[in-house]
Amino acid sequence: MSNPAFIDGLFAKKPHEKAPDFVKAKLSIKREDMLKWLGEQSDEWINIDVKESGKTGKWYAAIDEWKPNNDGNWEGREQAQQAVSEPVPAVDVEDKPFR
What we know:
Structural class: mainly beta
Number of strands: 4
Radius of gyration: 16 Å
Number of domains: 1
Strand content: 15-25%
Shape: globular
């Protein structure tokens, strides 16, 4: 397994034990560091996985660098059902079930 590529200024944590069930992760952004890192990237899309360390149990965010094989084979992809380069569309504020 290769070393994860981290995102400067982005931190992922397990939700607080008293957080509601619908809270799946806690993300923190150190704005200045992340803006600098984003300015150094050339890809239009940056896919990110939130993972849990097998050794320490700490959560972290890492770049998802997976690419399909030349023949379009999805072998080795843990989440084969997800689109490769299309992010999940943003939810319009008006569509949210709370206000």
